Amino acid sequence: MEIEFSGEVVEWRGPAPFHFVRLPLDAADLVDEVKAEVVYWGVVPVRARIGDTGFTTSMFPREETWFLPVKDAVRRAEGVGLGDVVDVRLSVGR
């Protein structure tokens, strides 16, 4: 399943800050439809693309949606910072 959406880069503070894009509710609903087929340890594996940079990661549920981690290497390559709105292309599953 492929999903395209735009979202703001947000920070979730922990021992080290992490950056994420929160899926809009309609995109989260699509993930929820297939999560039983792909979920492991409560996370959903995805292949994602922001700009020209592709990466693999796992999304996790939080605040009634899914959070897509955005790796530092991706943010640097695409010149993306906290608060920026990015276009995301997402392929759910391994």
State the helicity in percent bands.
Answer: 10-25%
SS field, number of helical segments = 2
Give me the count of strands: 6
Which regions have little confidence, pLDDT < 50, spanning 5+ residues?
none
What global shape is seen?
Answer: globular
- What kind of sheet is the major sheet? 6 strands, antiparallel, barrel
Question: Could you spell the SSE succession in H and E letters?
Answer: EEHEEEHE
Strand content: over 45%
What do the pLDDT scores average to? 90
Helix and strand content put the structural class at: alpha+beta
Please give the alpha-carbon distance between the first and last residues.
11 Å
* Computed CA radius of gyration, to the nearest angstrom: 12 Å
Instruction: Name the strands of the widest sheet in spatial order.
Output: 1-2-5-4-3-6
Question: In words, what does this structure look like?
Answer:
With 94 residues, this protein is α+β, with helices and mostly antiparallel strands. The protein is built from two helices and six strands. The chain has helices at 25-38, 72-78; strands spanning 2-12, 18-22, 44-50, 53-62, 65-69, 85-92. The model has no long low-confidence stretch (mean pLDDT 90). Strand 3 (44-50) and strand 4 (53-62) form a beta hairpin. It has a six-stranded antiparallel beta barrel with strand order 1-2-5-4-3-6. Helix content is 22%, strand content 49%.
